[in-house]
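Sharing a chain and its predicted structure for anyone who wants a worked example. Both blocks are below, sequence first, tokens second.
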Amino acid sequence: MSGTFDIPFKSDVVPQALDAEAEIRFRCRTGISCFNACCRQADITLTPYDIIRLKQRLGITSGEFLKDHTVPFEMDADKVPGVKMRTDDDGACLFMTDEGCSVYEDRPTSCRYYPLGHLAMRCKDSPADEAQYVLIRETHCKGHEEHRTIRIKDYLTEQDIPMYREMNREWLQLILKKKSAGPAVGRPPERSLQLYFLACFDLDRFRRFVTSPAFRKAYQLDARTCETLDRDDVALMKFGFRLLRQVLFGERTLEETPGAWDKRLEDRKDVWEARRRAAIAQRQQMEEDKYKQQF
């Protein structure tokens, strides 16, 4: 089995996995003594759908939201870009107020899961993930002392997690596929990383890209699809995930102008092979260096 952990702490101890039927004792509410404590030390990685909800909530463009409310970071050694919520100098979320979260109805995915960590487990021969969870207990949090028990699946529904999980699913699949492919994919070139950032996080700029004459000339998009992409952020986000599967992994997810796909394969065949070889050599060198450091 393989798994991915979405847990905001590091530990050598793997917590006990819980299924959706398990009960937890937890409630967060206005007036509890620790109210806002978790928002005062915020380390929140944002998903593409999080950004759509927040930028629409604030009535600004994705570029404005990224500039004013996020900081970039690298998600892996290949410098795949990610974004975190910007905080003040003391580490507090900028959306925190004395009355609570000012964007509560559109709060990010990781805020909705708390105090649960999500583990996506998949058996070797299974086509689907098996969702499991862990309960996160932080010393400041008094929500665990509240007199309410609730099944995990009901808590997730209460926090609107199923819809967020579906919106985030294809993005998470991209990340997991990149990670599992390893040297077979290699480090994406800078232009591919730039496209990844646009398609995932800066949708308003990405919309200008896909509505450009050059893009519409290369890809066969019908008028109805073009109209939808022009006005629907979620449809544009999902279109971006399809495009990234084609650009990053060579999947034929979008219909190109006749001859464009074969020409792309021929033009990039040597580049893809060189990237694969370079990535393998780099990882081998890293292993050799690590071995030498031990002696």
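Comments welcome. Residues 187-281 form one domain.
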